[in-house]
Amino acid sequence: MLIVGIVIVLIVILVIIALWQFNKLRKLKVNVEEGYAQIEVQLARRSDLIPNLVETVKGYAKHEREVFEAVTNARAHVQEAQGVGQTAAADAQLTSAINGVMIVAENYPDLKASTNFLQLQEELTTTENKIAFARQYYNESVRALNTAIVTFPSMLFVGMAGVTKQEFYEVPDASQRIAPNIGFN
What we know:
Blueprint: H1 2-60, H2 65-80, H3 83-106, H4 109-113, H5 115-150, H6 158-161
Helix pairs in contact: 1-2, 1-3, 1-5, 2-3
């Protein structure tokens, strides 16, 4: 009778551990999904600001057509991107294109003094900060999930929980790791 009781207690303990590990892995997966969704939200917010920025700068710099086309194309790539790798590459391309617009804006003192441009600049700066925080949260969530997937005892429950290692959000080209220069001080 004592042995049966011990076996039942051990089985209950094992079931509790299994459920705990299963739920831990599922929660980590949800965190990764939430982190990626936040990146997409902030990238969409930045994409929504781009037409206003382009139109404001266009009014002052009508002959800078290539710069505006680069921004428009990069914005379209961000909106079409699927998955972490494509999104990171498109994000880097758009960041580079925004830098081009800001460089053009440097040549127009009246533009830099425009209230509308200054407001857009502030919104863009705020959005860039939110994108950076969203990337950081996503990568921290990926690290936690990937660590759990390869460590004991959670690695025993990976298949049952239906989770897989996730890709970190990385800028593909080291030259594009520089944040856009949005300030005009």
